[in-house]
Amino acid sequence: MEKLGVGIVGTGWVSGEYIRAFEAEPHTEVRALVSREKDRAHAKAEEYGITRARAYDHLDKMLDDPGIQIVVLATPHPLHVSQGIAAAQAGKHIIIEKPVALDLAGMRELQSAVAAAKVKTVVSFVLRWNPLFKNIRAMLDDGMIGKPFYAEVDYLHGLGPWYAQYDWNIKKEMGGSSLLTAGCHAVDALRWFVRKKAVEVFAYSNTSPQNPLRYEYDPNSVTLVRFEDGAIGKVASSIECVMPYVFNIQLLGDQGTIRNDQLFSKRWPEQKGWAKVPSVLPDSGDVSHHPFQDEVRHFVDCIFNNSESHATIEDAALTHEICFASEISAREHRPVSLPLA
Fold it and tell me: Residue 14: which CATH number?
């Protein structure tokens, strides 16, 4: 089977994980790297031993390369819309890092471009391939907790000067909001587990009194979500917290409860305490901890089988709408209905 050529845009931390994943996939190879400085692209290729990869300092030049079928956008948030539209119009399949856009208008533009080009997309909510996430979906499918009526997913990860993206992430025009820049993983997980349409959002946000990390936007938020079947959910997101990384999951159903890797269910009538299901938890912000290999394999399968991913730009838009609605609600002190107009 012919290999698909991959072009990776961006040479930061996460780009290395994409290089590893695509190089390990037997049906793909990395053929191009794009950076604002061509020397950085060359250095990244040498670091990962892919000397075949061509270095570009302009995206358009790489998009003209007929040997590239897949484009990975691993660039700062504000660039995703324009780069995604250009890649779609060039007929390239796209993996795009989250958030795909910092506002609703940009997201709609990108959605339209992808729909018109009929290219495959995956938005990198990579935790959908995390082993714990797979176990939880299996338990939900098996009816172990019955019908979920309440869900909590929390993203607590202090992003300070020790973090690679800190210098630009603290700026409003770059980070967007606590949810958009990081906590959207928790919002997406909420949707992934509840599996119902969100219809209303209410939120609060704040900054600690001293704001020692100098965020230009509120780095902490609590978002409440009401779903069409009456289920409710909560997402807490803090990128200002002083604590190790925590990704909490709690799902309450009419037949039982899931708490991270623990289960209590009426299906087991003699159960007296929590049952632990050993797994790999999403308990690190280190990108090398995340299952990029599984995500990439899934995307390649979608291309070869002409099937759509569960993590397309259209699906990701529903997660982003909750994030946008949360920011509106916190700013205007009111509930916000979905979908957004």
Answer: 3.40.50.720
SS3 150: strand
Ordered strands of the 246-253 beta sheet: 275-276, 262-265, 256-259, 246-253, 148-156, 232-238, 220-227, 198-206, 336-337
> Looking at the structure, do residues 64 and 100 belong to the same domain, yes or no?
yes
Judgement on whether residues 133 and 121 belong to the same structural domain of the protein: no
Same domain, 117 and 131: no
Locate the DSSP E strands across the chain: 4-9, 28-34, 54-56, 70-73, 93-96, 121-123, 148-156, 198-206, 220-227, 232-238, 246-253, 256-259, 262-265, 275-276, 336-337
Spatial distance between the Cα atoms of 114 and 233, rounded to a whole number of angstroms: 30
Domain that holds residue 169: 127-287+319-337
Strand partners, 71: 7, 94
Spatial separation of the C-alpha atoms in residues 311 and 210, rounded to whole Å: 38
Whether the Cβ atoms of residue 179 and residue 237 lie closer than 8 Å to each other: yes
Cis amide bond preceding 339, omega within 30: yes
DSSP three-state, residue 337? strand
- The reported pLDDT for the residue numbered 18 is 98
Q: Tokens in use for 207? A: 């900054």
Task: Identify the pLDDT of residue 153.
Answer: 98
How far is Cα 161 from Cα 170, in angstroms, rounded to an integer? 10
| Co-location of 134 and 281 in the same domain | yes
pLDDT attached to residue 228? 98
User: Do 207 and 308 belong to one domain?
Assistant: no
The domain that holds 272 is classified in CATH as 3.30.360.10
* Spans of the chain, pLDDT less than 50: none
pLDDT score of 1:
63
Q: Are residues 139 and 29 in the same domain?
A: no
- Number of structural domains the chain divides into: 2
Q: How far apart are the first and last CA of the chain?
A: 45
Going by DSSP bridges, is the β-strand pair 246-253/121-123 parallel, antiparallel, or unpaired? unpaired
- Please give the model's pTM, rounded to 2 decimal places: 0.96
